[in-house]
Structure to design on (249 residues):
């Protein structure tokens, strides 16, 4: 097993995810107990995988409830991922189009029933990032990274910073931040904006990637749920492998 357990279900290929659950099957068969799974939960940062391990293989909950909770967790996480990716899309459109920063912020805050920060807080914190970048020895990786794993308030501030920086400096100048961006989605969109792609093309392209990402992630989550329940029910390794193959082209 990978000792880091730092998986990301959005970016993990479905084949690698299937191999992970098959390794869990081998682990539980070899050690004959849930102690090994509890250790895996303690070291797993991926929220959906950790949830399945905990509720499906460590708890005493009945299977129908385990399945229901897995579906709820799936929908909660997918909604969160969709919103974060869409916030990135709005920010990238703003960068490419030179949109007014206040307009961009209003667009982004409209994605929330109750925004995590006020307009004034967002603007002040984004300006704070701009100021911090001018200081000697500024930590670029910490200041300009964008990632779907961030808290929503942190993500809002980072995205507003990018929009502000593009208006006050230039779109081309954002290229130097690309090596420090963790999110492949945001990195691709930022690269296209720096290369002067049309804003309308950019926003439609990124919407397509967003939708495909969410669809594929749902498939991976559903496969994980079925494989986890199969491990719980002590199905044979080959039968669990068959379940995995059903989710692959």
């Amino acid at each position: 097993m990978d000792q880091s357990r730092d998986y990301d279900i959005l970016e993990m290929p479905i084949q690698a995810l299937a191999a992970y659950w098959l390794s869990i099957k081998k682990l539980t068969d070899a050690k004959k107990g849930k102690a090994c799974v509890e250790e895996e939960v303690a070291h797993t940062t991926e929220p959906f995988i950790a949830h399945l391990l905990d509720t499906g293989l460590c708890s005493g909950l009945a299977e129908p409830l385990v399945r229901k909770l897995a579906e709820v967790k799936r929908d909660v996480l997918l909604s969160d991922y969709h919103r974060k990716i869409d916030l990135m899309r709005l920010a990238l459109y703003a960068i490419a189009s030179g949109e007014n920063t206040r307009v961009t912020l209003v667009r982004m805050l409209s994605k929330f029933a109750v925004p995590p920060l006020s307009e004034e807080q967002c603007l002040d914190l984004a300006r704070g990032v701009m100021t911090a970048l001018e200081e000697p020895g500024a930590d670029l990786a910490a200041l300009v990274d964008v990632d779907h794993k961030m808290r929503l308030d942190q993500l809002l501030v980072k995205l507003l910073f990018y929009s502000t920086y593009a208006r006050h400096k230039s779109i081309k100048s954002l290229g130097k931040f690309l090596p420090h961006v963790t999110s492949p989605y945001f990195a691709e969109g930022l690269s296209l904006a720096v290369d002067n792609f049309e804003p309308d093309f950019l926003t439609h392209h990124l919407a397509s990637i967003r939708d495909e990402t969410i669809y594929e992630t749902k498939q991976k989550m559903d496969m994980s749920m079925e494989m986890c329940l199969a491990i719980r029910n002590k199905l044979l390794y080959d039968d669990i492998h068959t379940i995995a193959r059903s989710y692959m082209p």
